[in-house]
């Protein structure tokens, strides 16, 4: 659940919160994500790549990642649910997810994928089922925070442009 | 757009010599994962690369134009990428591709791109297992990056393009076998099967073999080499890239043939590498020699540049040498190995630049000869002037000469060598070639020596263009003077020895230095003329056996066999004059091997003596057995480095080689090496500049451990070891 303050914030998009406060909130959020292991250094690289010439870069990447990840998770759910699991296919998908999560800096998700692959190699269906759940858990957790992050960013940018205008 | 285009165009045309080269480099990125692709694109843009941007092929078709600050071209389908490349061949400088893709295997794409378009390809994957990486390298990837990719890594990838360009622009005309296909073949060889290389000169194979052996010793080096083994098929002639595969093949071939019979030809055959001609190797070798105080180059050169791949190897050589060096370092016992490595390196270097690699390879074959024999052998082989390499070179110089010299040498060598090489090893190879081998061996042994024996040796007479075949290059003999007929011998020694702490008084080597011996061989780069102290004959001066004609001889010999290893490979048919690459690295080497010299005809370099090359490992003819402070390992490293350096950048080659030595060499020794190396630079005027480059590269760069092949800015750092020059 989003913290109360965030909810309040989000529900009042035009609250008089200052730009600085917004920024501070965003920083705190991101920092907490780092601390909790949701994000790693790679995300910093992404942040670094965002600049004046590509202001929406981070948002773009995050969106791409989320779309891709959800697609993969859906596929995985289907595959693992079958009576006889095609572990190779499963492994291929997990590999993909591992790649994209590492590109975006989604550390927990990536680690969960690594474990998932272990079970795949062992052809362990139960293990895969569990691992899939773990991956999903981490992913959705991350996704929520990303949502908040993006909203904050949007507000900040709106604020900025408003101020500039 | 014009500006951009022009820029891009410029870059392309001018081979990226432009200072701003990295900027505007056109990259095509392929990855099925949209997230990664986007991130990669942003990173590449950040590095200021640009290219046409299109998310899909269609888009590309419409809006494709390499101009403006268009973001990097990206596509998520390999098939699309291929199409793009085929239709716009000259619009891209580099391809980055993921390994796992749904429509086509990344490796396959890699092969196809490398084969058809001769573009550098970088693999990308989240999977970093060694075997996968190896596979990538085997398929010809210039580099293998792990996801997530960082911007720092991407900032360096332009090197691959430059390197490739450099090679293509190099005057490799001499190297016949530059067929691109060869390279591809080599590259494509699956899993680096050693014998996959089609028909290329065996030499290359041999060299590679040698190297492989050595490489085997040094796994880590392999990686480096692999990296270095970029596809240098940019040349018109498909150059043979001395990839690790080749190397492996080479080594395997050598092993198969047995040291005694490890004639370059045979090796080539075995290697079945395409285009691997001895010439290539020789050439590379020569180059190497000149650059690298003949240490490794000699070795490689001896291989007779046969392998075009060597040429390529030049870049690879860097590796090779490294390996060799590294290997040598590690295998003290295997002195021969070491040398082979060096040879390999030399050879490979020789091919391209690394004359060394070949030499190394040669050495490898002989690893087994350990101990005194080896030393002797090495010495003999290495007769590189003063330099360890020198000995190799010496051996190489025209086998014919060798023979003649041999008697002399042997005597000398005997005197010098503890083991009394005399015949040894170097000579073992066919007389004609034996010389080469000798040189190689000496070279190799030098290198090996280095490792095993810190001795300094080499400079001894070994450089003297060891009278070809068996005579261990005058081991001990003060060299220069000895080269009686050789004239050519100019002291190839000079070069070779850089690695080993030739400290042995360069005098021995120095003796050559003064070209007095071979007046005609000015080219002989007598490395270090400096008779003394500069053991650094760094440029394994191959004693260019001017057999045929002085000028020619020189060319051949001049192989700055830094890759002394090469010498080993000299084909038995030393019809070519033994090119002794006299790397008179010693500063004095005014002689500077003439560029031609550096290109030792690979043919000449008979590797036959290869078997004896085992000795070569020891390059280190350690005249100063005691002195060889430089741990062989060091040397090996150096050599490798040098070799590698040769390969990487013609110029840098020398440096590298030398570099390696320096680092390891103890102070006193260092000087020697440095000298050598530096000498090489001066003296080895290979191909005009190659030698210098080689020398430079071979010059002892203090970086020993890293054998930063190619990438290391080997830039001629001559090691100003005081002594030299």
| CATH hierarchy: architecture of chain A | Up-down Bundle
Order of helices and strands of chain A: HHHHHHH
Q: Indicate the structural class of chain A.
A: mainly alpha
CATH class of chain A: Mainly Alpha
Mean pLDDT of chain B: 47
Number of domains of chain A: 1
| Total beta-strand segments of chain B | 6
Radius of gyration of chain A: 18 Å
The oligomeric state is heterodimer
The helicity of chain A comes to: over 70%
> What overall form of chain B do the CA principal axes indicate?
elongated
Q: Remind me, CATH topology of chain A?
A: Four Helix Bundle (Hemerythrin (Met), subunit A)
User: How many E-type strands of chain A?
Assistant: 0
Beta fraction of the residues of chain A?
Answer: under 5%
Number of helical elements of chain B: 33
Keywords (chain B): Activator, DNA-binding, Nucleus, Phosphoprotein, Transcription, Transcription regulation, Two-component regulatory system
Biased composition (Polar residues) (chain B): 186-206
Protein name (chain B): REC
Biased composition (Acidic residues) (chain B): 215-231
Give me the secondary-structure topology.
The complex is a heterodimer of chains A (165) and B (725).
Chain A: H1 4-11, H2 19-35, H3 41-49, H4 57-81, H5 87-104, H6 107-121, H7 125-164
Chain B: H1 2-13, E1 27-30, H2 34-46, H3 57-63, E2 73-75, H4 78-87, E3 94-98, H5 106-117, E4 121-125, H6 130-138, E5 143-146, H7 151-156, H8 158-169, H9 180-188, H10 202-217, H11 219-228, H12 244-261, H13 264-271, H14 278-291, H15 295-302, H16 308-330, H17 335-353, H18 355-366, H19 371-382, H20 390-395, H21 399-416, H22 425-428, H23 431-452, H24 493-496, H25 505-513, H26 550-557, E6 562-563, H27 565-568, H28 595-598, H29 610-617, H30 632-648, H31 653-664, H32 667-683, H33 690-698
Parallel strand pairs in B: 1-2, 1-3, 3-4, 4-5
Helix pairs in contact in B: 4-5, 10-11, 10-12, 10-13, 10-16, 10-17, 10-18, 11-16, 12-13, 12-18, 12-29, 14-15, 14-16, 14-17, 14-18, 14-30, 14-31, 14-33, 15-17, 15-18, 15-23, 16-17, 16-18, 16-23, 16-30, 16-31, 17-18, 17-23, 17-29, 17-30, 18-23, 18-29, 18-30, 19-23, 19-29, 21-23, 23-29, 23-30, 30-31, 30-33, ...
Pfam families (chain A): Hpt (PF01627)
Keywords (chain A): Cytokinin signaling pathway, Cytoplasm, Nucleus, Phosphoprotein, Two-component regulatory system
Domain HPt (chain A): 54-159
């Amino acid at each position: 659940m989003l913290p109360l303050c965030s909810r309040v914030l989000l529900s009042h998009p035009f609250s008089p919160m200052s730009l600085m406060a917004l920024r501070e909130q965003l920083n705190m959020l991101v920092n907490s994500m780092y601390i909790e292991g949701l994000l790693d250094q790679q995300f910093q690289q992404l942040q670094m790549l965002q600049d004046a010439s590509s202001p929406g870069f981070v948002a773009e990447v995050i969106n791409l990642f989320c779309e891709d990840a959800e697609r993969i998770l859906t596929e995985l759910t289907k595959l693992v649910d079958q009576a006889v699991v095609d572990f190779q296919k499963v492994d291929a998908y997990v590999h993909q997810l591992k790649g994209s999560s590492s590109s975006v800096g989604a550390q927990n998700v990536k680690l969960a994928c690594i474990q998932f692959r272990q079970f795949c190699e062992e052809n362990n269906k139960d293990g895969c089922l569990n691992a899939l759940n773990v991956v999903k858990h981490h992913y959705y957790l991350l996704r929520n925070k990303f949502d908040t992050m993006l909203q904050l960013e949007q507000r900040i940018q709106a604020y900025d442009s408003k101020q500039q205008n | 757009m014009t500006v951009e285009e022009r820029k891009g165009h410029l870059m392309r045309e001018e081979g990226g010599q432009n200072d701003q080269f990295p900027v505007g480099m056109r990259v095509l990125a392929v990855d099925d994962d949209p997230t990664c692709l986007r991130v990669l694109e942003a990173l590449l843009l950040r590095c200021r690369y640009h290219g046409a941007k299109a998310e899909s092929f269609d888009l590309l078709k419409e809006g494709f134009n390499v101009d403006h600050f268009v973001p990097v071209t990206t596509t998520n389908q390999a098939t699309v990428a291929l199409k793009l490349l085929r239709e716009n061949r000259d619009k891209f400088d580099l391809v980055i591709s993921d390994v796992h893709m749904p429509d086509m295997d990344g490796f396959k794409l890699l092969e196809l791109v490398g084969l058809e378009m001769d573009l550098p390809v970088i693999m990308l994957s989240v999977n970093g297992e060694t075997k996968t990486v190896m596979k990538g390298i085997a398929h010809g990837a210039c580099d293998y990056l792990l996801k997530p990719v960082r911007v720092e890594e991407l900032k360096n990838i332009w090197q691959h393009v430059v390197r490739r360009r450099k090679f293509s622009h190099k005057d490799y005309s001499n190297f016949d076998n530059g067929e691109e296909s060869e390279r591809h073949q080599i590259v494509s060889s699956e899993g680096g099967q050693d014998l996959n290389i089609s028909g290329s000169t065996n030499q290359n194979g041999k060299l590679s073999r040698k190297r492989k052996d050595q490489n085997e010793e040094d796994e880590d080096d392999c990686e480096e080499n692999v990296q270095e083994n970029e596809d240098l098929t940019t040349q018109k002639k498909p150059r043979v890239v001395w990839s690790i595969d080749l190397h492996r093949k080479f080594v395997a071939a050598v092993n198969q043939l047995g040291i005694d019979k490890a004639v370059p030809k045979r090796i080539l055959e075995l290697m079945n590498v395409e285009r691997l001609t001895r010439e290539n190797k020789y050439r590379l070798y020569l180059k190497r020699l000149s650059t690298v105080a003949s240490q490794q180059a000699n070795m490689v050169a001896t291989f007779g540049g046969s392998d075009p791949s060597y040429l390529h190897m030049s870049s690879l050589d860097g590796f090779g040498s490294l390996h060799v060096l590294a290997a040598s370092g590690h295998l003290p016992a295997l002195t021969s190995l070491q040398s082979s490595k060096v040879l390999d390196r030399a050879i490979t270097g020789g091919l391209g630049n690394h004359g060394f690699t070949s030499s190394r390879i040669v050495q490898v074959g002989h690893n087994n000869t350990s101990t005194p024999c080896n030393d002797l052998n090495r010495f003999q082989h290495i007769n590189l002037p003063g330099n360890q390499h020198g000995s190799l070179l010496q051996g190489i110089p025209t086998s014919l000469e060798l023979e003649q010299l041999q008697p002399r040498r042997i005597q000398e060598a005997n005197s010098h060598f503890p083991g009394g090489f005399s015949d040894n090893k170097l000579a073992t190879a066919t007389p004609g070639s034996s010389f080469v081998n000798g040189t190689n061996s000496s070279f190799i042994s030098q290198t090996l020596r280095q490792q095993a024996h810190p001795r300094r040796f080499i400079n001894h007479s070994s450089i003297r263009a060891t009278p070809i075949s068996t005579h261990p290059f005058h081991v001990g003999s003060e060299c220069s003077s000895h080269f009686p007929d050789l004239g050519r011998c100019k002291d190839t020694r000079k070069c070779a020895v850089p690695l080993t702490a030739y400290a042995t008084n360069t005098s021995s080597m120095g003796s050559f230095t003064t070209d007095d011996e071979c007046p005609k061989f000015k080219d002989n780069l007598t490395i270090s003329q400096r008779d003394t102290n500069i053991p650094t004959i760094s440029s394994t001066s191959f004693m260019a056996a001017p057999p045929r004609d002085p000028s020619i001889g020189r060319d051949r010999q001049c192989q700055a066999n830094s890759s002394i290893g090469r010498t080993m490979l000299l084909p038995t048919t030393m019809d070519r004059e033994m090119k002794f690459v006299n790397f008179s690295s010693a500063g004095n080497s005014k002689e500077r091997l003439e560029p031609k010299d550096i290109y030792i005809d690979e043919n000449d370099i008979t590797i036959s003596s290869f078997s004896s090359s085992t000795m070569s490992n020891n390059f280190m003819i350690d005249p100063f057995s005691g002195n060889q402070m430089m741990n062989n390992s060091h040397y090996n490293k150096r050599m490798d480095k040098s070799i590698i350096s040769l390969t990487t950048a013609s110029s840098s080659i020398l440096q590298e080689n030398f570099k390696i030595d320096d680092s390891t060499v103890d102070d006193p020794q260092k000087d020697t090496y440095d000298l050598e190396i530096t000498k090489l630079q001066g003296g080895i005027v290979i191909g005009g500049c190659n030698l210098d480059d080689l020398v430079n590269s071979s010059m002892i760069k203090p970086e020993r451990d890293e054998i930063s092949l190619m990438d290391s800015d080997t830039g001629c750092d001559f090691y100003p070891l005081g002594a030299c020059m």
